[in-house]
């Protein structure tokens, strides 16, 4: 098996096929990553199949082994189950395990004993990708026991966490636009396709384009607000906003909208935070402005008597805030992990992947404002090394060199059957019971 520190070095030969396996790919990220993985798997002697669900899928991958599903979502379970049986599928690979087509396919695979590999953007951004066995986030099988995590880290050894594969804005934005506008233009080829986004892409792109024109102005304004915060002796807490369409919010939390999160956090802050404390809300970098969060926050803050204690940042970067913040509240954003790495207290509102005893604040939200529990730096370091070894690989879909690295590293993990290794698979998923008890629809 490749060592954890060797996952991104050069282009080592892929493991040879012992018994040929039969891989079924569903939707991937909006780039050629899955197609390249399929090419590598075929070259290693395995059988590869792909189902395209929309014109954008076809744009990224067509040719041998590809087929289209143009039926209704109501018929998808029977279709994908029969396909798994007819092709004797051994492995299912998909990006994001809670999209409606993927959720059903995972259930069908589980009933047949088919291995499931779920991919996502990396927890250790930039320059990393996630690939897990079975599920992601609250469905992750990665352990939550601190002792178990420390053992994985010890077995993994040193990990090179130096930044690689810098993100290209063009490679982040252009494939998204091309994919979604292809689906709009050629909708009649897949008339029953149900997209996983919540807004029509044309509306979202128009709003995003308009906001982009004002980005420099908003960044300057945010920079001035941060400077003012730093000049004051008053403590401040941070709530990073998540995208309304983020599956971390939609499928792995009990909240129907981030508006509910804002209302909950502001009410708790008004009732329990020290009078001198401020609350900083920061928009997501990809927020298209559809929801109108600044107005929502202003109205709620005024109703709670918080108008002079709330700072709304509609631009800039989160990272400078982690130098001084008294604590970060998040649903389950990876911004919470960044804050932990900066040794800042973090309160998650659901069992996030990094919600570990000793790392995050384990008391309730009301108590967090006055007595936030700082993270155990050694445990945070162990968690980062453990996930880097077991469920992260070097690579990026927003960098050409990084995409090739991600494809090779993911395929190596698949062929070595080393997902969630060493010893990083707990069954049942250790976050699941808590999530369900909180009302997460899983």
Automatic annotation (TrEMBL):
InterPro entries: Capsule_polysaccharide_synth (IPR007833). One of its GO terms (biological process) is polysaccharide biosynthetic process. CDD domains: beta_Kdo_transferase_KpsS. This is Capsular polysaccharide biosynthesis/export protein.
């Amino acid at each position: 098996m490749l060592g954890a520190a060797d996952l991104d070095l050069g282009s080592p030969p892929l493991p040879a096929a012992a018994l040929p396996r039969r891989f079924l790919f569903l939707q991937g990220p909006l780039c050629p990553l899955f197609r390249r993985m399929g090419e590598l798997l075929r070259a290693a002697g395995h059988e590869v199949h792909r189902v395209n669900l929309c014109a954008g899928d076809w744009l990224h991958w067509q040719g041998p082994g590809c087929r289209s599903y143009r039926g209704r979502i109501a018929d998808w379970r029977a279709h994908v189950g029969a396909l798994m049986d007819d092709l004797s599928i051994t492995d299912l690979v998909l990006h994001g395990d809670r999209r409606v087509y993927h959720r059903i396919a995972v259930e069908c695979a589980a009933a047949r004993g088919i291995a499931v590999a779920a991919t996502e953007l990396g927890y250790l951004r930039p320059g990393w990708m996630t690939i897990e066995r079975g599920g992601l986030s609250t469905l992750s099988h990665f352990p939550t026991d601190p002792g178990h995590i420390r053992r994985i880290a010890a077995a993994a050894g040193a990990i090179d966490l130096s930044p690689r594969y810098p993100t290209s804005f063009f490679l982040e934005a252009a494939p998204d636009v091309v994919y979604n506008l292809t689906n709009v233009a050629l909708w009649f080829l897949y008339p029953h396709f149900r997209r996983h986004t919540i807004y029509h892409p044309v509306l979202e792109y128009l709003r995003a384009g308009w906001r982009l024109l004002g980005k420099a102005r908003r960044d300057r304004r945010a920079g001035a607000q941060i400077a003012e915060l730093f000049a004051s002796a008053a403590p401040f807490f941070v709530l990073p906003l998540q995208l309304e369409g983020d599956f971390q919010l939609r499928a792995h939390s009990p909240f129907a909208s981030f508006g509910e999160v804002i209302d909950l956090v502001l009410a708790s802050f008004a009732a329990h935070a020290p009078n001198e404390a401020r609350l900083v809300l920061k928009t997501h970098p990809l927020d298209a402005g559809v929801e109108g969060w600044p107005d929502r926050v202003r109205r709620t803050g005024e109703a709670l008597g918080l108008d002079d204690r709330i700072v709304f940042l509609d631009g800039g970067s989160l990272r400078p805030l982690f130098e001084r913040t008294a604590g970060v509240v998040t649903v389950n954003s990876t911004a919470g992990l960044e804050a932990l790495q900066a040794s800042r207290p973090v309160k998650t509102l659901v069992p996030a992947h990094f919600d570990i005893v000793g790392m995050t604040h384990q008391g309730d939200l009301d108590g967090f404002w006055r007595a936030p529990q700082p993270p155990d730096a050694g445990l945070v370091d162990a968690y980062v090394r453990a996930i880097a070894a077991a469920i992260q690989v070097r690579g990026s879909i927003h960098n050409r060199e990084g995409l090739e690295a991600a494809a090779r590293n993911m395929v190596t993990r698949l062929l070595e059957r080393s997902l969630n290794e060493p010893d990083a698979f707990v069954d049942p998923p250790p976050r699941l019971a808590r999530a369900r008890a909180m009302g997460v629809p899983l």
